């Protein structure tokens, strides 16, 4: 009986070890979401407030080695900026980050990669006296480009149960203003977004 117990324990330990090693090398899928603090920056941008909004989407983590992995994502990210707490300029994007992740110690990682954004919606929500309203822009009439590029830099912690906490900064690389926009085509305007999120891998 004692030998059977020892054999059983060794078998369970071995199976657990094999599963853990296999799991470290397994492609994982997940969902994530969180808070955005968004604004725009540039030499020609005045003093604007950040807009609090959200991001939500899917990701895949592909292990390349014990410490390195590649994580492509597809996110709906609500961005833009606020104007004196009186109006929100909303710029919503379908964002595609392509992140390289480095695990510094178990669970703790740093990440960086390019991000490509496709504008999904553009409108202004405003308040005037006791009433408010909104103006939605037709893509053909807008001065904002339909495509945007960013550099995403971040860090996070991934728990053993698959839950992760992350912080990321998206630095705009391309000018948001269309080249043929009247009067402002030469303005330097870029997106800038802080993202704080929670993810779950399965």
TrEMBL record:
Keywords in alphabetical order: Signal
Signal among keywords: yes
Domain of life: Bacteria
Endpoints of the signal sequence: 1-20
Listed name of the protein: PorT family protein
Residue ranges of domain Outer membrane protein beta-barrel in the record: 20-177
A Pfam family annotated for this UniProt entry: OMP_b-brl_2
């Amino acid at each position: 009986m004692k030998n059977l117990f020892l054999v059983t324990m060794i078998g369970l330990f071995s199976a657990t070890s094999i599963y853990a090693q296999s799991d470290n090398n397994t492609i994982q899928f997940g969902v994530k979401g969180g808070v955005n603090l968004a604004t725009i920056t540039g030499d020609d941008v005045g003093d604007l407030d950040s807009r609090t909004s959200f991001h939500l989407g899917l990701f895949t983590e592909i292990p390349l080695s014990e410490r390195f992995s590649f994580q492509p994502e597809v996110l709906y990210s609500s961005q833009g900026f606020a104007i004196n707490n009186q109006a929100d300029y909303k710029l919503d994007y379908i964002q595609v980050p392509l992140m390289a992740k480095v695990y510094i110690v178990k669970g703790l990682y740093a990440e960086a990669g390019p991000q490509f954004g496709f504008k999904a919606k553009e409108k202004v929500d405003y308040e005037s006296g006791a009433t408010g309203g909104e103006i939605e822009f037709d893509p053909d009439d807008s001065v904002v480009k339909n495509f945007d590029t960013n550099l995403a830099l971040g860090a996070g912690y991934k728990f053993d149960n698959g839950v992760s906490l992350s912080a990321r900064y998206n630095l705009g690389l391309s000018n948001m203003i269309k080249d043929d926009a009247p009067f402002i085509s030469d303005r330097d305007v870029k997106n800038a977004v802080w993202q704080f999120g929670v993810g779950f891998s399965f």
